[in-house]
Amino acid sequence: MKEKILQKSGEFFLKFGFKSVTMDDIANELGISKKTIYKYFGNKEELVDESISHLHGVILKSVSCICDKGYNAIEENFEIKNTFKDLFKNTDDSPMYQLQKYYPKTYNKLMTDEFHMFKNCILKNIEKGINEGLYRDNINIELITKFYFSLVMSVHDTNLHKYNKNTINTLELKALEYHTRAIATEKGIKILEKQLEQNAN
């Protein structure tokens, strides 16, 4: 039951917002009493925190599965981007704004966890791409990783701007293209162009 509560809570929080969703909403959707929820979670803040940790675990598992499928480094990045697009297709950026405003500790923990996951993922991807001859071998991997992470996160920063979902998807694709062009070899650029063509729609 705890797993079901976490899964449904995560879906609701991302779709409607961390502040907007109540314990009653979650209980009604699952057809259970609030008492059942409080059996596993002391309060809403605890539920939000564990829901975020659960979501982070789902993301890690999804990324790991992609990395095990034998794609080259550039294909791998596009597969990861498309997986994220599918995972968050029913959300907008207002939930993250609410998380940052009303649950700052959980938000900061999420950003730290996401950066470490992102950093490890990109580091491995760059090393893989260099070995495959798709990325140049004279790049500063640490700086490239931080720059790309900052670029992607800025797309979702509601303090800077508000975009609709289609615009966000376009900007994420442009960020990936920008990142790849900055480090790719001629061989890598050819694969990038093919991926951009396949992801044009």
Automatic annotation (TrEMBL):
It comes from the Bacteria. Residues 22-41 bind DNA. GO terms for molecular function: DNA binding. The keyword Zinc-finger does not apply. Coiled coil: none annotated. Gene3D superfamilies: Tetracycline Repressor, domain 2. Pfam families: TetR_N (PF00440). Residues 1-59 form the HTH tetR-type domain. InterPro entries: Homeodomain-like_sf, HTH-type_Tx_Regulator, HTH_TetR. Keywords: DNA-binding. PANTHER family: ACREF/ENVCD OPERON REPRESSOR-RELATED, ACREF_ENVCD OPERON REPRESSOR-RELATED. This is Transcriptional regulator, TetR family. It comes from Lutibacter maritimus.
